[in-house]
Amino acid sequence: MLDEVAVKRYVVPLREGGSLPGLVEAEDLASYVMKFTGAGQGRKTLVAEVVCGRLARALGFRVPELVALDLDPVIGLGEPDPEVQGLIKASGGTNLGMRYLSGALGFDPLAYGVDPLEAGRVVWFDALINNVDRSWRNPNMLVWHGDLWLIDHGASMIWHHNWRGAPAWADKPYDASDHALARYAPDIAAAAAELAPRVTEAMLAEAVADVPDVWLTDEPGFDSPDAVRRAYVETLHARVATIHERIALPEGGADQARPSAPGWLTPGAGR
Ligand SMILES: Nc1ncnc2c1ncn2[C@@H]1O[C@H](COP(=O)(O)OP(=O)(O)OP(=O)(O)O)[C@@H](O)[C@H]1O
Ligand SMILES: [Mg+2]
């Protein structure tokens, strides 16, 4: 289970995020990025954050600590922005918190190098969870104290929006041509050899166990939260063994995915 902490104060919206995540302070005196159950993207975004965030951690990736944030909507009463106030009003109860990495920078491919092994591990992981939201336009990675951190797994596991079609996802390819790390010559084979044997059903079950029941109840086609949990485990596990064979990297090699530095930053340019 995720640790549960109560929200004490809503601080400020993080305007970059499409789902209008907010920075909050909690009763444990820590700051969290809060993702709201009442956001337009719905609770499945939060389920994906927990399943994939926990899985990523278990595989050794850096992911901010996740907690369940208990929100009393009264906190929103003094909020001047009606959009934020509406979101808080619609999100009483359990929301998702991610430990705020104060001072973290957005991943910048021109400023941060990633070795092929690390790039391969991230691309392989994103292929497993079918993450469509780690492109070079929107990398959803942060650099904090010199290390790469993964955030924002809310747009993964598209199959959970239509469970009847989920079994077919076992054999579907993953298009990594736009992936933020495609340019670093990701060593997919090495990543698969290292990570795939570790993604057992037991390990997936542990990750899925952390999803709060309230986000899994009344899922059409399932009679209990645990039945939904089993569906996540089965669908992910069916992809593990062979997903590396179906990862499509940019045609013409890694350089195709490399946005270049502007001329004024390139030594000798313009001369
Ligand atoms: N744990 C964190 N620590 C510091 N900054 C964070 C953290 N999580 C998110 N951010 C910042 O907030 C932004 C929005 O967060 P995130 O990408 O998770 O939200 P989103 O609404 O899902 O965004 P998107 O528009 O990509 O769908 C990030 O790009 C990053 O700048
Ligand atoms: Mg994002």
From TrEMBL:
Superkingdom, natural source: Bacteria
The record's listing under InterPro entries reads: HipA_2
Q: Which residues form the HipA-like kinase domain?
A: 14-236
Q: Pfam families from the xrefs? A: HipA_2 (PF20613)
**Region Disordered: start and end of each range?**
250-271
Tell me the classification of the organism that encodes this protein.
Answer: Bacteria, Bacillati, Actinomycetota, Actinomycetes, Kitasatosporales
Q: What protein name does the entry list?
A: HipA-like kinase domain-containing protein
